[in-house]
Batch of 3 targets.
Target 1
Amino acid sequence: MSRQESIDYLRKLCNKDVPITDSPVPDAVDKAARLQANEPGRSKDHYTSTLRAWSAFCQRFRDTKNKRHRTVMQQVANFALIGEMGIAYVLTTGLEQALKAERRARRGLYPDALYSIVADGIAAGLNWKSINVQTGASPYRMSGEAKVFRGRYEEWTATEILGAHIEIGKHTLHVGTTVPKILAALEDRYGIDFKELEKQRRLQK
């Protein structure tokens, strides 16, 4: 099996979220580890070290309480199996970079509900029967089919929200650029702080 055939095969295995468990190790993970271990230039213990990295990743996933970070980890696990990079590398270095990007995005994020209000409001003004909103992407991450069941904005990660876009024919409306500019302009004009207002709103509930 050629490298490209291996990648295509693994993509078919991973068209849904891979189960993050090491008891037992999912079939897709085992097959991906074996395929990579058989590639030219791999060390003799590549398969074993990959499974060790997978077990450590699973333990970290179990210890992670932040819901959005768990979503990021799921996406990293999906990406790790497509065969383009070493699985162990993606589960360690790749994971750290993905979580770092998520924390950075979170710091610049307005309250999630405001993205729905503003972005979907703009799209509704175009009189669409349906609004085609796509999540943003990030290195070392890939969503399985399960992403379609996640509620827009509320259940997306910060990276996905800031990179989200709405397809308008041949044009694209970038949610992560448009919404903050509109909200910042309103804050400047009326002397308000939406993040603070959202905090007060949550306390009143």
Target 2
Amino acid sequence: MLSAQQLQIDGRRDDLLPPTSLEARRGELLLVSGDGQDQRTALALALSGRMKPSKGLLSWDNSRKTKKVRAASAIIDAPGVNEPEQHLSVRDLVTEDLSLIPRRYRGALLSKPWLKVNRFEDIAGLWIEQLPADRRLELLTALALADPALDLLVLDSPDRHSANTADWLPRLEQLAYDAGRPLAVVAVVSALPDTWDGPAAVIGNSVTHTAPTETAEAAEAAQEDPEEVPATLQRTAK
């Protein structure tokens, strides 16, 4: 299980990632909504062990070691991080990505047979920018899962390629609920689909709000009765 408790990443002025908590189990799809692309990417990087949070705790199967989280996870299609370059052909992308698979699995992974076995021969000659949103997602997730050590997929804004949830939600559900290889799947999206009733979280859900201070309350009271203003506040007012 993936567990994040009050993860926070500091920015230059405001938080790059405000405090956020969530849990994702194997065999489960968790959707996390957030307004800004920078926040969504920061969360995806943190959950996959690619960015160290400034505060908070992250664990995978009760281990807080970043190395273990990273080894078990893949971050998919993060803008400005690892999204495929548009000028690449599908064939070239497959060749590049398979070369990154750990060496002990790499021997049998050649692009031509991989494309055939995984039924991507029909798009092998296309540029990445030509792919429909659903086929793009199928390709990128299949490439990630070529590494049998992965149990956690973290997807950065799959909804940015299509406003139609049918282009990405069914694929993620299929991956999460596959009985043969149940995965923990986390998709960080701009907004939850209207029909979604599964596990969900919101970026910034652990932000604490400070209660009104006694000074503020006293200032309000002073408008009614100046004599009740504390001495410290009176000095400040002068």
Target 3
Amino acid sequence: MLKTTPASAASSASASGGHPGGVSDEEFRAAMSRLAAGVVLVTAHEPALDPEGPRGEDVGMTATAFMSVSLDPPLAMVSLREGSRMDDLLAEQPLWAVSVLAESQRHIAGRFAMKGRVSDRLLFADIPYVRGEASGAPLVGGALATLECRTEQRVSAGDHTLVIGRVLTAGVPSADGGPLAYFRGRYRQLG
């Protein structure tokens, strides 16, 4: 067994792209990629700056770090990259929605996960959705489940923000097909 001193561990960690006293970025990504996760589309409506001007804009992002937190009260949580457009928007306004994507909606997940993507307005252009009554955010047609939330708490966690929301509405609009999953860096279907 190889023993390391704190100083050698720190220099080794920084040389390998890791963190002092911890795992390297690559090791952590590889281990966490073995955890299958459901895929959701998180959406929110950015209000217009001028109430007399054009309507605000819909914003969306793909997420795999989404989970239920509590039944009483009903709470759910999503993890957002700190400084992302969604993180900035939800820091200003508290209403958001989640559509749990079906296995047939891989194209939607990929579209909203792209880096350097086109405007959100174009991304929503040919996707069927209804506007949530509680949040005003898009709820994707054909999703396995939809939830509308109001932020209760924001927790800074490393390079992400954990947004905990009270669930205002929950629906199961579609029972067709299985969930879209993410495993080992790729979208997958169960079965």
